[in-house]
N5-carboxyaminoimidazole ribonucleotide synthase
Amino acid sequence: MTTVGILGGGQLARMMALAGAPLGLRFLVLDATPDACAGQFAPMLEADYRDQAGLAEFAGRVDVATFDFENVPAESARWLAERVPVFPNPRALAVAQDRLAEKTLFRELGIPVPEFATIDSREQLDAALASVGTPCILKTRRLGYDGKGQFRIKSPADADAAWQALGPQAASVGLILEGFVAFQRELSVVAVRGRDGELQAWPLTENWHDHGILSASLAPAQTDAALQAQALDAARRVAEALDYVGVFALELFLKDGVLVANEMAPRVHNSGHWTIEGAETSQFQNHLRAVLGLPLGSTRALGHSVMLNWIGAMPAAAPVLAEACGHWHDYGKSPREGRKVGHATLRADSASELAGALERVGKALGRESQVAPVIARLRD
Ligand code: ATP
Ligand code: MG
Ligand code: MG
């Protein structure tokens, strides 16, 4: 029996383990947190990613390794890759960990990106504010997620506050200044590349964020075939340049018909959770198939899906369960402000049916503002 090792034991590892069960797979999850939520479904090895003894034991017990967490130190990934197949490969992981490296790669590949400049000092920030222009966003190059490690700069007068907030981190994680993209929509493409180079992508997904955290996704996004082709082309270039194996996501801004790349996630992605019920093959199962060199499943969407993230605490399940098209995912995590603790997916054959269900659920849960932009799009 094949054992897949997963570095990181969050909800992504948990959903991977659930998707791998029908394939007859076993899992081993490496995580330093004793109550990591994947541990409820997969055996866990309690160790830090940097701990060589832990990594050595992990390597000895798995046939192949992958990630639930993109910030595993690249050195740990490289060390592991010398002992066991690791997908995606450590170089792909390293590029995706660093906003400067990933934006530089996108630009080299002809993929549109916002203006950007690397920032090592206060003087450089002033110079970059002039070249990049305002509004813009100062971000940490590494270790940011859910909008953390970012400071929005409206005018050069905000430079002092931005430097006060993030300057102390310049030496440890690096900083990048990015032009603010006044986008019409936020989209993402989730794609999978097999060990043989076959590439497939799920339909484009439209995403809404709340305070930098994904709040809702609609798939397929209501866009035309030309945009889908643009996204697929960008995904293919990135995947081939990195010799990528597995699932990844490109987060995109739609501005005046052009897809501008924001960042990539070298793993299964929150904007792909709808694929569990809303696609022929889920991102989790296809990731495992890719990593194991198995044939990839179809990424075709089954009707229309909306995914709602539950942030901080789980709401009542009943209104979603009462819908014929409702699917519930409770990650079994304890509540904490800003923490992703679960999600729901509503899947229907028609956009109007989906909008109706979404409206009922939003009202019953007092989440009208979370569902409103999605309903508006479905009724466009
Ligand atoms: P994630 O949880 O997706 O990894 P993150 O912390 O890496 O988030 P980003 O994706 O860079 O952060 O930014 C979070 C959100 O902030 C984006 O989804 C987008 O809504 C907004 N944002 C980020 N960069 C820009 C930009 N250059 N122009 C406009 N909006 C932006
Ligand atoms: Mg990110
Ligand atoms: Mg992001």
Remarks:
- The pocket of magnesium ion (ligand 3) is lined by residues 251, 262-263 (CB under 6 Å).
- The two ends are 49 Å apart (CA to CA).
- The chain has three domains: 3-86, 115-179, 185-378.
- Residues 185-378 form a domain with the D-amino Acid Aminotransferase; Chain A, domain 1 fold (CATH 3.30.470.20).
